[in-house]
Design brief:
The protein contains 11 helices and 6 strands. α3 packs parallel to α10. Bound molecules: thiamine diphosphate and magnesium ion. Thiamine diphosphate (TPP) binds next to α6 and α8.
């Protein structure tokens, strides 16, 4: 077969231009999902190429699964289709213990972070210098949005009352930071990476648009 095919000697035109164009179009579509895109890209800017990003079932995480730029193998860790809420923060502690010399960032929603926030004690006790970002919207945001969109605007049991995260960090003995814009988040991460200490960064993101509708995939 190889001989026969060689005689046929077909040459295919390179498709790199077509692929570059496709990538550009998809990136533009993803960037239209704000503010999730701005926050995710701010994290990407502050995280070195070999830094490790641990995702979660939270709004910026859904965007990240679609469009977060990943430059090296095993630097993007997610619960995948298991979708286990609460996975991000504790997983990031294990990742940081395995890779103490590389920055490790987890993103969490205020709902999911509450599942395992007791691990702040583990972080402090063992001096695990991971960076935990908590995006707060005072809700199990995904659940609230599904209720609003599919149940005539009626919501039940999806609102959350948040603690003061700076006080929470202080109470557990980890560094606390606050950032309410993508630019401030980038600066906060850069400062945390330089400081190299266990860190909690609270980000009041508020309610955000349905990413799948904007992306046109659902
Ligand atoms: C263990 C587990 N419990 C419940 C769910 C269902 N669930 C998926 S997303 C979500 C809300 C998450 O809220 P939050 O962590 O605050 O993220 P947000 O959507 O607000 O960014 C829930 C309850 C799940 N995926 N896994
Ligand atoms: Mg939330």
């Amino acid at each position: 077969m190889a001989d026969l095919l060689q005689r046929d000697g077909r040459e295919r035109p390179a498709r790199s231009t077509e692929l570059e164009e496709l990538k550009r179009r998809l990136a533009a579509r993803a960037r239209a999902v704000g503010p999730q895109a701005e926050y995710a890209l701010a994290i990407r800017e502050a995280l070195p190429d070999d830094g490790i990003f641990v995702s979660e079932m939270t709004q910026v995480g859904y965007w990240a699964n679609f469009a977060f730029p990943v430059y090296e193998p095993r630097t993007y860790i997610t619960p995948g289709y298991q979708g286990t809420l609460g996975y991000g923060f504790p997983t990031s502690l294990g990742v940081k213990v395995a890779h103490p010399d590389r920055p490790v960032i987890s993103i969490n929603g205020d709902g999911g972070f509450g599942f395992c926030l007791n691990e702040l004690a583990t972080m402090a006790l063992h001096g695990i210098a991971a960076i935990a970002i908590v995006f707060t919207d005072d809700a199990f945001g995904n659940v609230r949005r599904i209720q609003q969109e599919q149940f005539g605007g009626r919501t039940i049991a999806s609102d959350l009352l948040n603690p003061d995260y700076l006080k929470l960090a202080e109470a557990f003995g980890v560094a606390g930071r606050h950032a309410d814009t993508p630019e401030k988040l980038r600066a906060a991460i850069e400062g945390s990476v330089r400081a190299g200490e266990p860190t909690l960064i609270a980000v009041p993101i508020g309610q955000v648009p349905n990413p799948w509708t904007v992306l046109g995939v659902r």
